[in-house]
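Appendix C reproduces, verbatim, an entry submitted by the partner laboratory led by Prof. M.T., so that reviewers can inspect both the input and the predicted structure.
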Amino acid sequence: MKKRPLLCLLPVLGLLLGAAGWLWQWPLHAPTEALAYRLILSEPVYRHAHDAALRDVTVLDDNGHQVPTALYAIADAQRPRHDLPLPWFVLPGATGGDAQRLDIISQRDAGGRVLRIESREATAVASTPSSYLVDASQLPHTPQALHLELAAGAEVDARVQVEGSDDLGHWQVLQGPSVILQVSRDGRQLRQNRIPLPRSARYLRLSVTGKTSLPLQSVRAELVGQVRETPRQWREFKGQPGKRTHSVEFEVDGRQPFDRAGVLLPGNAAVRVRLESRDDPDAPWQTRTGEWMQYRLADMQSANVQSFAPVRHRYWRLLADEPLDALVQLKLGWKSEQLIFIATGKPPYRLVAGSARNHRQAAAVDELLIELREQQGQGWQPEMATIEGEGTLADPDALAVPRNYKHFVLWGLLIAAALLVAGFAISLLRQGAKPAD
């Protein structure tokens, strides 16, 4: 039995009707059954978006209904905190009040590590040391704090000052006296052994103020993992001479959140430029950056990149105080964003973008994510979904601005009311012109 052509097209027609009012659509691949998904937006999504705030980008279910969706910036990843033990030494002859006057002689290896220290002055070593030298020269970067491990069971209430030096000869205070406390009672212990460091040095000197002893067992450096920045994407745009003297104007075809800009010169040149943008060709230009120098000499091209607050403008302009080659190119960079949507409705899901009439429905996605993390654990994250293929045209008339018929209705009512008043006036005039009986 042959299938009728119309019946074969029903699935396709249903897909298109489900995305009516949206310019473009992409099928989504969600590999597992999850409670929520996160989707990183690609450049074609930004290119087909129409709304300046990206409100016309959302997710539909198989029936064409919107699912709870929200737009988020992708946070930079930060490596977890970790502690590193540091070599430490008791400074000979150091007392709390005289530690800063001590002349230190040290023996170091080729890498700068302290091997041995001694004092020039023949001072007896105190029975309760009050100054310690910490070798921080091998740390990969500046620590956030120091953690002092004290002898178990010791009762301590002291103030410790931290000084720093890069040559063991010149010292400066890095952190004023900090409370170091360790007390216990009835099997419970209260401890404060962390000293914050606003800045650091290769070598640290810990000085205990007063006559309190500090039964130090070890010193650890608190290192916060370095931030791993989200990769930034770039596009280059060709321009044309602007209306203003010494200017070149550019038009971009996407709604990316641009926050970086650079200039590519076509030949040997050195110019000072500034950047402006706007989202409407009739709107006034807005300054994005101040003046900066760009040059190109032979194979050397300046890599100066300017940063500014993210903006989704379509029109950009470079200005200079001297003639600017029309072949100059504008390089704009941005960080991709992500959509997080809740797995409601009937899968499979579709991503849609571009509409002059439809917007993403407001949804309490933030509250839902908080609830899910409380139930699933703080380490829970939405599953990753991906865009499949280049997408298809869903509704070619989606960007057509709907006519405002209210304007015509109001004018029609006003004209009808005027005609009605005129009719009453004419009727009254005719009645007044008839002779009396």
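The first strand starts at residue 24 and ends at 29. Additional entries are available on request from the coordinating office.
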